[in-house]
């Protein structure tokens, strides 16, 4: 059985643009490859996604690679049909914070988002681009959260008594 990280596992079966991620087909040093379904053309395609989308050097290398591969035509090279960037997903994973300190989320993307715990202990309402949400934890228990505007945008805050 293939080992899939928590981040790549959470991305399975979500839709990004025209592509629904179906399964992981490979991992590299900087990206993960997925088998995806493109509903508009009823076909399966390969989608390659950066593992860490906050590293500007990796983003530049990834974009350059996509542009270069789009120029190549060879039977041993998968053709590149599309390239995209966006903030329609995030994957902060598990975050540990000390009880009495705050979880802070700044919306640095172009779209509005929310930060809402499953049990509604905290709910940011809509966070516009450039705005920040802050919540201070008073008890040591995990709080799964998501963006109510975008399916598949999830995280988990784990307050602890000490670090």
What does this structure look like?
The protein has helices spanning 6-11, 56-71; strands spanning 15-16, 19-27, 31-38, 43-50, 94-98, 102-106, 116-117, 132-136, 143-146, 154-160. The longest helix is centred in the middle third of the chain and has 16 residues, at 56-71. The strands form 3 sheets. Strands 1-2-3-4 form a 4-stranded antiparallel sheet. The protein has a 4-stranded mixed sheet with strand order 5-10-9-7, with no helix packed on it. It has 163 residues and is an alpha+beta fold. It contains 2 helices and 10 strands; from the N terminus they run H-E-E-E-E-H-E-E-E-E-E-E. The chain is 13% helix and 34% strand. A hairpin with a 7-residue loop joins strand 9 and strand 10 (154-160).
């Amino acid at each position: 059985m293939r080992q899939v990280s928590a981040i790549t596992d959470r991305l399975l079966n979500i839709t990004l643009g025209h592509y629904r991620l179906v399964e992981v087909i490979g991992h590299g040093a900087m990206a993960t490859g997925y088998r995806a379904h493109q509903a508009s053309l009823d076909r399966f395609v390969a989608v390659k996604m950066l593992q860490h989308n906050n590293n500007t050097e990796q983003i530049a290398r990834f974009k350059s690679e996509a542009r270069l591969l789009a120029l190549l035509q060879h039977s041993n090279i998968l053709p590149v049909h599309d390239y995209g960037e966006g903030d329609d997903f995030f994957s902060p994973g598990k975050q540990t914070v000390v009880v009495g300190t705050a979880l802070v989320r700044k919306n640095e993307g172009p779209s509005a988002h929310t930060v809402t715990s499953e049990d509604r202990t905290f709910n940011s309402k809509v966070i516009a681009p450039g705005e920040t949400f802050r919540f201070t934890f008073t008890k040591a228990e995990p709080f799964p959260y998501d963006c109510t505007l975008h399916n598949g945008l999830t995280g988990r805050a784990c307050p602890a008594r000490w670090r």
